[in-house]
Amino acid sequence: MSKQKNATWEEAKKRCRLNQADIQMAKELGMTPKSLLKNIPSHKQQWKVPVKVWIRDLYEKKFGYTIKITSQLPEMRKIEWEKRKSAPKIIDISDEELPF
What we know:
Elements lengths: L1 H14 L4 H9 L4 H6 L12 H13 L10 H13 L14
Helix pairs in contact: 2-4
């Protein structure tokens, strides 16, 4: 049963273009994947906001804030660290130490 639930949440995440914070907010609001999929706006429903925006608006209205993902992937941290390590270092030399 849990595999089927995860599969439906994964489908909703993919079709509604949600990230993990949006999924968490939707779950805290008591929404189901089916309700998210039903609220995807069609081309004729231009007045309807995307599901991602709709979830954030409802969550902010109910709780007063939204959840944001601040952590980075370990690969991204490693890449940034290597960039900082390989950056040229600036050496401060005073005018008195210059040969000319």
